[in-house]
Design a protein that fits this description.
Structural class: alpha+beta
Number of helices: 2
CATH architecture: 2-Layer Sandwich
Helix content: 25-40%
Strand content: 25-35%
Number of strands: 4
CATH class: Alpha Beta
Number of domains: 1
Shape: globular
Radius of gyration: 13 Å
CATH topology: Alpha-Beta Plaits
Low-confidence stretches: none
Distance between the termini: 17 Å
Amino acid sequence: MHARVAMFEGEDRGAEYEQQIQTIRSEVESGNRPPGLEDAKGVLILSGEGGRRLAITLFDDEEGMRRGDAALNEMTPVGMGRRSSVAFYEVAVMDMK
């Protein structure tokens, strides 16, 4: 399993953020993934202090992660602040109970 981790900064929790989260939640729950994200196996969005957010998208393999990265790079993160960094990881341990 592989993970793409994007950091966002500079947006307060306002109406745009709440709308964006609702849109993402609806897409995830319906299984209706945007083009290029068909290989995504899961997503986790963490909202922190000072307008910081982490978006972690999980993929079975590196090739799917690279396709997902290309698709996500084309998207404009409305309400999430500006994307300040993107990093890639191999998931060493995962337990979802």
